[in-house]
Amino acid sequence: MTIVFFNKPYDVLCQFTDQQGRKTLADYISIPKVYTAGRLDRDSEGLLILTDDGKLQHKIANPTKKMAKTYLVQIEGVPLDIDLQPLRQGIHLKDGKTRPAIVQKKTEPDNLWLRDPPVRFRKNKPTSWLSITIREGKNRQVRRMTAAIGFPTLRLIRTQIGNWSLDSLQPGEWRVE
Description:
By secondary structure, the protein is α+β, with helices and mostly antiparallel strands. It is about 15% helix and about 30% strand. Strands 1, 2, 3, 4, 7, 8, 9, 10 and 11 form a 9-stranded mixed beta sheet that branches. The chain has a two-stranded antiparallel ribbon with strand order 5-6.
């Protein structure tokens, strides 16, 4: 069994081919017959797991398995704890109510890499950071959750899936276990 841990950079598709010439996993990973276990949107960064084990792939990607996924989220604005409470209780989105999330305020990590292109900066709009752990995977869920409480996501980095984490992988780097 092969498991690849990849730090997916911003603006890379979670597939190996693209007819439009955009960056894909093939630009970074040369291991044959591994497939993604879950996805990250093109505008999201962070931990992506690839494997050649179909059972493991299903365990990670299938929402019924409820594997925890943790994200470092830069948002526009500075929420109070009361603002974050709907996320902790489960919030209603267009496709139904989310499961309760674990949400913590964070400081910007010292070792965080720069994003290319950088997140937009507005002098009159402060930003802040959250750690959000969910156990489901609705389409663009974290972004829709923060927008629903009035704090749009500016940057989204998945740092952990289950017990697996990014550790010291930099964008575009991968390791095999």
